[in-house]
Amino acid sequence: MVLFVMIAVGWWAAPTDRATALPAPGTTGDTEPYQFTATALPTGGLAAATALIIGGLILGAVVVGRIFYSPSRKRR
User: Fold this and answer.
1) Cα atoms in the 13 Å half-sphere on the side-chain side of 2
2) Cβ(49)–Cβ(41) under 8 Å?
3) DSSP notation for 51-70
4) Would you give the DSSP letter of residue 31?
5) What's the DSSP call for residue 3?
6) For residues 41 and 30, what is the distance between their CA atoms, to the nearest angstrom?
7) Which region holds residue 26: left if phi is over 0, alpha if psi is between -120 and 50, else beta?
8) How far, in whole angstroms, is CA 43 from its chain's centroid?
9) What's the rounded Cα separation, in Å, for the pair 68 and 53?
10) Is the dihedral of CA 34, 36, 39, 41 positive or negative?
11) Within 13 A of 4's CA, how many CA atoms are on the CB side?
């Protein structure tokens, strides 16, 4: 239900004429849309950030697995 409401609000809020939509604030209209993304972090920093994100995802999966899918203990 929430997803449908979000889709409806996004559809309603979108500009009607896509060709005249304004660019995001702070952009200069460069031909390379991902230029800042590619140079925001050095290569080592990008690898470290990716490793932290993947590590967090794995740790979250471990926690969820231990809480919800651990074997039940037999009670006497």
Assistant:
1) 0
2) yes
3) HHHHHHHHHHHHHHHHHHSS
4) S
5) H
6) 19
7) left
8) 20
9) 22
10) negative
11) 1
